[in-house]
Amino acid sequence: MNKIYLDNASTTFPKPEEVPRAVFDYMTRSGVNINRSSYADAYRAEELVFDTRQMLCDLFHGPDCRNVIFTKNITESLNVLLKGFLKPGDHVLVSSMEHNAVMRPLVQLADCGVTFSRVPCDSCGVLQPEALEECIRPETKAVVMTHASNVCGTVLPLRRVGEFCRERGLRFFVDSAQTAGVLPLDMVQMHIDALAFTGHKGLLGPQGIGGFVLGKGMEAHIEPLLSGGTGSLSHTEEVPSFLPDRYEPGTMNIPGIVGLHAGLTWLAGREEGEILTHELELTRAFLEGIRPLEEEGKLRIAGKRDCTGRVGVVSLQTPGMDPAKAAYEMEVGYGIMTRVGLHCAPSAHTSLGTYPTGTIRFSFGFWNTMEEVAAALKALREVTHGV
User: Fold this and answer.
1) What is the tens place of the pLDDT at every residue in 303-330?
2) pLDDT digit string, tens, across residues 325-359
3) How far is CA 341 from CA 1, 46, 61, 364, in A?
């Protein structure tokens, strides 16, 4: 039985073959650290890290490649941004579609006197920017928002929210986990002050590498979450004030950066919009294929029923059948790999009306095919009909 991977919102698979090859070559032919050694291999590795920063800066239209900071993942990035920026008495706005990578740090910060308000989204995950005005307070300091829901794929209106923030003197932090490498992200046009990214999804790198990009001057407003050796200013025990060293203590994940560099290089060779177009073609075929099952009452789509304003993520409820059972039967009987549950986003599921049951999530990637969509539809029909 062939396996069909439809869990790309969790991590993209497969990666371009250049990615594992680059990591293997680095680990077997070099394997050195940077910033701490004075020989040719270390300088070459440092040049590759610099080049990766520049590629990310160009991709997101950041102010300077030194403003690209590497972390282990987007969760660490969001913790650095939120815990380093917010102070007791501050208030922040979030959408009701946020992932726990945003919500759990904010709930922690609530014990320190930081408050937050959820800007409501409708049952399709759509946010109306006008709703921000009703939630703003005199002590509001920032808006923190995902670009697209990891549950239902709905895209939030970053440009309009960024304009709202600029007009009111608020900082704008963006979680790009589901969109970096798939949708355009322009920190200048969208008025983004800090953009968090992960390497292993749309950027096609390995797990364990992520980061954030700071807008000009933002380092003066965000305290580092971690501190330690950087290989620079070793004569002092003070945290460096300059970028990127201010936020990058300890040994860097050079293998992860090497793999990310290979993923970014592969992406640079694609036509603009090519990946999104392919993923939405698959999504459209999937949505059309499940419509009869929804009419029969066998399935319920959580979120949008068309391909406007979304990425290739579709979540389904299975009335009368435990979604975990349905997902298990699809994997065991048909080789269809999905994700089931609340997807680390209980707030989003509450907005979509799928809490606490959760959903089965199908997320399409560049290497999925129409034949695989057809196989998934066949499996859904037979599982929900008890065949």
Assistant:
1) 999 999 999 999 999 998 999 999 999 9
2) 999 999 999 999 999 999 999 999 999 999 999 99
3) 25, 41, 35, 18
Span 208-234, average pLDDT: 94
SS3 state of residue 80: helix
Tell me if 279 sits within 8 A of 178, measured CB to CB. no
The ranges assigned to domains in the chain are 4-14+272-384, 18-268
pTM: 0.96
Mean pLDDT of the chain: 96
127-156 burial by CB neighbour count: b if 16+ within 10 A, else e?
bebeebeebbeeebbbbbbbbbbbbbbbbb
Distance, in Å, from the CA atom of 242 to the CA atom of 265, rounded to the nearest integer, reads 28
Residue among 315, 355, 347, 279 nearest 127 (CA): 347
CB neighbours of residue 69 within 10 Å: 26
CATH architecture of 4-14+272-384: Alpha-Beta Complex (3.90)
Q: In the CATH hierarchy, which top-level class contains the domain 18-268?
A: alpha beta
> Residue 320 has which token pair?
């009368």
Instruction: For residues 217-235, give the mean pLDDT.
Output: 92
DSSP 192-220: -SEEEEESSSTT---TT-EEEEEPTTGGG
Phi and psi of 341, rounded to 5°? 125, -145
Tokens in use for 313?
């993520």
Beta bridge partners of 180: 183
The count of other CB atoms within 10 Å of the CB of residue 20 is 14
